Amino acid sequence: MTAYADTEAMLAGHGLITAEILYRMPDARALLQSFTWQNYDIAPEFPKLKAFIDFWRSELDGPLHSVRYTHQHLIRPGEWRKVDGEYLLN
Predict the structure, then answer these.
(1) Phi and psi of 24, rounded to 5°?
(2) What residue ranges in the chain does DSSP mark as E strands?
C-alpha cells in the first residue's frame, strides 16, 4: 500500500493489526518458529487476517500452533470541548 492508500484505509475505519504467528517447523515438529505480520484491517471481522491464515494453512508447510493479535485504530474522532472565552496576549 502507498501512504495515500494507507490514509484512505484508516479514514474508512481500518486499523493497524499486528499478529504474532507461532508455527511448527516442517522438518522438526518439536520446534516453534515465530512470524510477525502487520496490515490494515477492520475489527471485529478481520477479513485480511483470516485470508492470510487461510493462505498459510493451504499453501505453506509449517502447521500453525497459535495466532495472537492486537488491533489499534490510528485515526480517531477529535476531542471537542466548549470554550467560553479567550485571552489575547500581545
Answers:
(1) -90, 140
(2) 15-24, 32-41, 64-72
